[in-house]
Each structure stands twice: as structure tokens, then as C-alpha cells.
Design goal:
The protein has about 350 residues and is α/β, with parallel strands linked by helices. Helix content is about 40%, strand content about 15%. The strands form 2 sheets. The protein has a 7-stranded parallel β-sheet, sandwiched between helices. The protein has a 6-stranded parallel β-sheet with strand order 10-9-8-11-12-13, with helices on both faces. The radius of gyration is 21 Å and the shape is globular.
Length: about 350
């Protein structure tokens, strides 16, 4: 019996790739042949190739909500990407396509639609991003993470599935994290992560209070590409990285408390791992405001403390860190009561349902 074939797509940031990676083991286990379509030089290329998945590159233009001269040229890149994706899909003949969003996914979704291939997509945030809004008419179903999201999905295409969590995140070791970082004192660990691209605001704010933090915590800081502070390279109790992959499960497992951006993928990983956290969402000045909505939802459920950039100073950040650490058990208990489950089984089940229908 021939294997069922799926093409995954999504890219631009790690948040549009790692949920796909979370699905790969389960898809392989139930017998899918997996391929991937992404951009020529996006972050998704290196991540997916490390998974041993066949990778196809297409042209991709960014779709912006603001004025930029590239808005006049990028539509032609998108059209070229549609033609390239259409031809790849026609040649490879997948049974189904799964899209995690990002701008590279739009041409793939449209290319699949015109090849009459069913497409399942996933939206992590409360409100759909621009790429998924554009893609919706061409989708068979769109999986959502928050119950609040269903009201934003037209045509009864929305399905509440939760977000897929990578299985390896549950296999980390605190002892291994301490070894990797070379921490000498047995202090609680504060883990700071500003998204795959890093956050200058979080980096600068944390480093401004670092000496005070190190009196109480060992600090692991993921600061983003090009954001290492070489002057702090040998500081006892402080370990900084541009980006981590293999080490991430160990670092997350070791964390007593976490400071993070409020992208949906990372906050649901923190929820799944029951990690008390302070969320600093991207401001509306530099985003569409989705992280603020995500963070407010978690704050309402008492899973997180939320600090918006405009309101942060050294004193209140230190106060919130100390408060969170002293009350961490309360937040852990709240997270244990969450009805939200790992979305891998739900999403793969939906993929298989519509793939089987096609077959």
C-alpha cells in the first residue's frame, strides 16, 4: 500500500516552523511521507533540513500592513511563488497540505487549491495573522489554539485543536542544563527568551538589573542573533546564547521562572511544562497587537504575569520577578487545571480525516 504524502509549509520566524516540527514524529509514525515547501533563505530551511525532510524552495514576498516601497515589488515575488508552488505540488502529488502560516505559506496554499489538494492550516494567535486571513478562502479547515479565535474564522472552517507541542521539550534535564551552563552555585534558575529573533528591549532591561538578579538567581538568557554582550561573557551565574535548539528542553526543564515574549507557541509550551512566567508582549507599535491579546488571555486565566513594554522600569520588573518566584506554586497549580491539551493528536487526526477522504 502506497504511503500517504503530506507537504508542510510555514516560515519567516521559528514560530511558523516549530509546530510543524512537532507534528513530524506522529505523521511518520502513522505512515506519511513528508516534504516541505519554504523560502530560499528563511529560518525554516535550516530547521527542516536538520530533520531530514525533503525541502523545496520558492520565491516569497512579505505582505505588509504599512507603507513600504517593497509593497510594489513583493506582489510579483508572491505570484512567482504561487507558480513555483503549483508546479511542485503538481509534480509531487501530495494527498494533503498543512500550513503553519507566515508569508511563504500563502503561495503554497493557493498552489494546492488550484491543484485541488485539501489544505489544513493552523493559527496560533487569538486573531488570525494576515497570511492566514488571505489564505482562508483556499483552506479546507483552520485549526485554532484559543477558543476565542473561532469567532474570527468565517465559513465554519475553524476547529479548536490547541497547539502542537514538541515531544522533546518534555525530556529535558535540570542537571544537564546546569552542566551546559557551568553554573557553580545551586540557585534557582531564571530563563529569559525573547523569541527566535531576540528582543533588544528585553535584553537591555534584563542586563540593566543583572547584578541584582545574580544575587538570587542563575540566569540563562536567549538574546537573539547578533545580540550577545561580550562584556558579560564570563560573568558568573549568567549564560547567554543567540539561539538554542538541542539545549532548549534542558533549559526549559531547569527554569524555576521564565521571562518571555507572548508568541502563542512559546506561551503554550510554558503552559504545557507548567512554568511560572512573566510575559512581555510585543507592543502595538511593532506588531498587530496579537501578543498583547495572547498575554491578556493567559493573565485572565492566572497562568502569567503580564508587563507591557510601555510600563516597564527596573524597579517594577524586579518586583514582579521576586513576586513571581515567591508565588510560583500558585501559578503552577492554575496551569495544572488548564483544559488546554497538546494539539498534536487533534491536528494529525484532522489531517488524516481529510487525507483519507481524498484517497
Amino acid at each position: 500500500m502506497a504511503k500517504k504524502k503530506i507537504i508542510l509549509t510555514g516560515g519567516g520566524t521559528a514560530g511558523h516552523v516549530t509546530p510543524n516540527v512537532a507534528l513530524i514524529p506522529k505523521l511518520k509514525m502513522i505512515g506519511y511521507e513528508i516534504q516541505y515547501i519554504g523560502s530560499k533563505d528563511g529560518i525554516e530551511k535550516s530547521i527542516i533540513e536538520k530533520e531530514g525532510i525533503k525541502y523545496h524552495s520558492i520565491s516569497s514576498g512579505k505582505l505588509r500592513r504599512y507603507f513600504d516601497f517593497k509593497n510594489f515589488s513583493d506582489p510579483f515575488k508572491v505570484l512567482k511563488g504561487v507558480a513555483e508552488a503549483f508546479n511542485i505540488i503538481r509534480k509531487e502529488k501530495p494527498d494533503i497540505v498543512f500550513s503553519k502560516g507566515g508569508f511563504v505559506a500563502v503561495p503554497v496554499v493557493i498552489g494546492a487549491y488550484f491543484n485541488r489538494i485539501p489544505v489544513i492550516a493552523h493559527e496560533s494567535d487569538i486573531t488570525p495573522g494576515l497570511a492566514n486571513k488571505i489564505s482562508t478562502p483556499y483552506l479546507t479547515k483552520i485549526c485554532v489554539t484559543f477558543p476565542e479565535s473561532l469567532k474570527y474564522i468565517k465559513g465554519e472552517k475553524g476547529v479548536l485543536t490547541g497547539t502542537p507541542i514538541r515531544d522533546e521539550l518534555f525530556k529535558g534535564s535540570r542537571k544537564k542544563a546546569v552542566e551546559i551552563c557551568g553554573f557553580k552555585e545551586d540557585k534557582p534558575i531564571l530563563f529569559i527568551i525573547g523569541g527566535s529573533l531576540g528582543s533588544k528591549f528585553i535584553n537591555d532591561t534584563v542586563r540593566s538589573i543583572l547584578n541584582v538578579l545574580l544575587n538570587k538567581f542563575n540566569v540563562i538568557h536567549i538574546c537573539g542573533k547578533g545580540n550577545l554582550d561580550k562584556s558579560l561573557g564570563n560573568k558568573e551565574g549568567y549564560k547567554q546564547y543567540e539561539y538554542v535548539k538541542e539545549e532548549l528542553p534542558h533549559f526549559l526543564n531547569s527554569a524555576d521562572i521564565v521571562i518571555s515574549r507572548a508568541g502563542a507557541n512559546v506561551i503554550f509550551e510554558l503552559l504545557a511544562l507548567k512554568k511560572p512566567n512573566i510575559l512581555i508582549p510585543l507592543s502595538k507599535k511593532s506588531s498587530r497587537g496579537d501578543q498583547i491579546l495572547n498575554a491578556k488571555s493567559f493573565e485572565k486565566s492566572e497562568y502569567s504575569i503580564v508587563l507591557e513594554e510601555e510600563n516597564i522600569n527596573k524597579e517594577n520588573l524586579l518586583n514582579k520577578i521576586n513576586y513571581l518566584y515567591e508565588n510560583k506554586d500558585k501559578y503552577i497549580e492554575n496551569m495544572k487545571k488548564s483544559p488546554v491539551q497538546d494539539g498534536v493528536e487533534n491536528i494529525v487526526g484532522l489531517i488524516d480525516k481529510y487525507c483519507t477522504k481524498r484517497s
